Amino acid sequence: MAASKRLSFATCNLFNTNEPGLAMYRDTTGWTPEQYEKKIDWLGRALAMVDADVWGFQELWHHKSLANLFKKAKLTSKYKLLAPPSHQGGKIICAGAVRKEMLVGEPEWIVNFPDQFVLFGSGDDPQTPEISVSLKSFSRPVLHFKIRPLDDSPEISVFVAHLKSKMPARVDTEQWFKSDKPFYGRHREGLGAALSTIRRTAEAAALRMLLTEAMKGNDNPVVVLGDLNDDKRSNTLNIISGQPNYLMGFSTGGSDVDLYSAGTLQEYRSERDVYYTHVHQNSRESLDHILVSQEFYDNSRKRLWAFEGTEIMNDHLNRDDHKETGSTDHGIVKATFKFSPAKG
User: Fold this and answer.
1) What digits encode the pLDDT tens for the residues 326-335?
2) What one-character DSSP code corresponds to residue 143?
3) pLDDT of residue 122
4) Are the CB atoms for 296 and 307 separated by under 8 Å?
5) Domains along the chain?
6) Is residue 246 very low, low, confident or very high in pLDDT (cuts 50, 70, 90)?
7) Beta-strand pair 137-147/103-112
8) Chain centroid to CA 249
9) Of 47, 61, 134, 159, which has the fewest CB atoms closer than 10 Å, so is most exposed?
């Protein structure tokens, strides 16, 4: 096991990292060899600089690309890479990397929502119509794995997620759209955005169910790493986190099923909030998150790991030249903790 009493997690959207020449979505030609080399170089240097113990990745298309990143960073011998060998450029997945001595068991990729997941309501009052959402699976499978950082520390469950983006879903190929193109054409953006929001919200609720089942009635530490495609104060994040109460005395609070944002924990140690991980139409957004259970919260009576700080690598977001430089279009978030159990 690791000798260090410190433990760090990082999350990074790889901006469609795929082997050169392979199609991605409607881009049939993919990355050129030159663009690919720049991506591997930039991301490899970022991996080495951030130097996290545990990584969560989004937008990985090919397992070889992840291996090449760690080879460039000269970290291959230190990490176990979590990406299926069968993953060879046909779709994107969540992936991971863990210092070899920490990984416990085998990773799993969760495609389907829990069997008992239901989104149906008959309405809170007579004037509210019923609502039903039939979605049953994640658009990007959730990666789940376990680690044990120290011999005398419990296992930690790590979930890596990538929820549906805020980009309006494409509706112009649907039959209902084609049936009245002039009318629906005027409403394409609004309807597409509504579908994306519904899908992201359903995915958040399904992820929340997985997390609650992992945390309820026990003291098992849980960490969520991911591009959740929404701000920390959004309804999406509220669903996933459970909106915990942060303002408790030292080692006196905590919640069995809530998750605490590393960004918010950092805010309490800073004079202002400078947390952003994405820029869209000149608007700075925080889409990439590290969420932790009460075992990582300083003010929890169940604390095992004390928060040391959050770092964000985001200077590259000030320039829209990601394809030219090989940089990712998201910030990289790292949170560090120190093993320091609360004294009961």
Assistant:
1) 888 888 999 9
2) E
3) 93
4) yes
5) 6-111+139-164+218-339 (3.60.10.10)
6) low
7) antiparallel
8) 29
9) 134
